[in-house]
Design goal:
The chain has helices at 32-40, 60-63, 81-92, 109-122, 143-152, 160-166, 195-208, 217-225, 228-231, 237-252, and strands at residues 6-11, 26-27, 30-31, 48-54, 72-76, 96-101, 126-128, 139-142, 172-174. With 253 residues, the chain is of the alpha/beta class. It has a single domain (6-252), classed as Spore Coat Polysaccharide Biosynthesis Protein SpsA, Chain A. It has a 7-stranded mixed beta sheet, with helices on both faces. Strands 2-3 form a two-stranded antiparallel sheet.
């Protein structure tokens, strides 16, 4: 598939209820959304990184901060992030796109490149790696398959990866974690929803970023393996978060 063009869509908005203005919370004097975007720019096989937010005026502060950076901006559907991503991918002409939730502050750019190399050879509708740290793995979608999914499912598509796996007619490439076994730690929660999650990220980043702003997820795991108490900071929130996701999915199903 020589015509593959993959955009990383950094999806987020300011209207968070559990943790107010969470994407602009700072660690080491840098907003978390900026740290995430800078990490994603390190993916070598992706065409662009696009901040994908809504047209709501509350998101002006999020959209208007990238003028002198390589980060592009798209603003669209305020209710359904997947439809927003699809519109973004079609306007930018991406054959595929990576769903990079801005909540997933330490999403792995190495995995982004691995997924692009896989889709170039395999050509699946969705590429995913299961069983890793919650918040480390991206989801790669074919733009054409995303269009089919939107035309198939009624209502908001809040968990697109579950639809791709559960519905017939979509091919899913479940990538083995060979070479990434160090990330196979589903007991670790690295996504930003609660104050406990922010405390987790603040501890990890403040210990690694000053020494090396280009720290990798391998460095994160090495740090956490020697500091198990940091893992326990937000581990109790995993069940609450999973139950919420299942409720959202069941509303549409």
């Amino acid at each position: 598939m020589s015509d593959v063009s993959v955009g990383i869509l950094l999806v987020g908005r300011m209207a968070s209820t559990r943790l107010k203005n969470k994407l602009l919370l700072e660690v080491c004097d840098v907003p978390l959304v900026q740290l995430t975007a800078e990490r994603l720019l390190r993916a070598k096989l992706c065409t662009a990184v696009v901040l994908c937010t809504t047209t709501d005026s509350s998101d002006d502060v999020l959209a208007n901060r990238w003028g002198n950076t390589p980060i592009k901006v798209f603003r669209g559907n305020s209710r359904d992030p997947f439809k927003r991503m699809l519109a973004c991918a079609e306007i930018f002409g991406f054959s595929h796109f990576i769903y990079a939730g801005a909540d997933d502050v330490l999403l792995d750019p190495e995995l982004c490149d691995l997924f692009v190399s896989r889709v170039t050879c395999v050509g699946a509708d969705m590429t995913v790696m299961e069983g890793l740290v919650c918040g480390f793995t991206p989801f790669l979608f074919s733009t054409a398959a995303a269009r089919r999914l939107v035309e198939t499912v009624e209502g908001d598509i809040t968990i697109p990866e579950k639809y791709m796996k559960d519905l017939e007619g979509f091919t899913v490439d479940e990538v083995p974690c060979t070479g990434f076994e160090h990330l196979a730690r589903p007991d670790i929660r690295a996504t930003l929803d609660y104050i406990e999650d922010f405390n987790f990220f603040e501890t990890v980043i403040s210990n690694l970023y000053p020494k090396d702003p280009l720290f990798t997820n391998r460095d994160v795991i090495e740090f956490l393996s020697g500091n198990e108490e940091v893992i326990r900071m937000n581990s109790a929130k995993s069940l609450e978060w999973t139950e919420k996701q299942n409720i959202e999915y069941s509303k549409v199903v």
